[in-house]
């Protein structure tokens, strides 16, 4: 699947687009890491939990860069800290307060495909923080805003937004277009397609999501 993502990215690059890819952790990695922590203690310190669970995205980041290199592309991977994603110090549910996208812009000028570890940033004391479940959505929308991207494209394991979970409800209908308010309501009620905070951010700043 990582190689298929790499091929999709390379095709988009070949079509002439500048690409910034935000990745989340593989499969159940985040849950597995939390489970590891709970084997040690019933109440892990939130700072240390963020230190632990942020590693899942770094694995995805490096592997996707390697896959693109294998296909002959020029990619570079970054952590949230390396691309200047600054947050408050609310560990496990931090809010983004600023993004300095200079390193991303420099890499794009060198015609590189930029891959960013989603879900994470650093606070003013350089502690690693995470943005809450589904936080990679928020990273993607925030970077799209800062970089003035034409579109923020979300890729997931279903074809789009449905009236119900198509894996459970067989006659669920795919929704072609949906406004931010309706998507936010769906997400807030438990739809796992997008993180509610990412929709809130997109609505506030007018970031189109596909």
Protein model, in words:
With 210 residues, the protein is of the alpha/beta class. The chain has eight helices and nine strands. The chain has a three-stranded parallel β-sheet with strand order 1-5-2, with helices on both faces. A two-stranded antiparallel sheet has the order 3-4. Strand 3 (85-87) and strand 4 (96-99) form a beta hairpin. It is globular and about 45 Å long. The model has no long low-confidence stretch (mean pLDDT 94).
Strand-helix topology:
Layout: H1 2-14, E1 20-23, H2 29-40, H3 46-53, H4 55-70, E2 75-78, E3 85-87, E4 96-99, H5 102-109, E5 113-117, E6 120-122, E7 128-130, H6 135-146, E8 161-162, E9 174-175, H7 180-188, H8 196-205
Parallel strand pairs: 1-5, 2-5
Antiparallel strand pairs: 3-4, 6-7, 8-9
Strand order, main sheet: write it out. 1-5-2
Roughly how much helix do the residues carry, as a percent range? Answer: 40-55%
Q: What's the shape?
A: globular
The proportion of residues in beta strands is 5-15%
Radius of gyration from the CA trace?
17 Å
Given as residue ranges, the uncertain stretches (5+ residues, pLDDT < 50) are none
Would you list the SSEs in sequence order as H and E? HEHHHEEEHEEEHEEHH
Question: Could you tell me the number of beta strands?
Answer: 9
- Structural class, by secondary structure, is alpha/beta
- How widely separated are the two ends? 20 Å
Tally of contiguous helical segments: 8
- Biggest beta sheet summary: 3 strands, parallel
The residue-averaged pLDDT reads 94
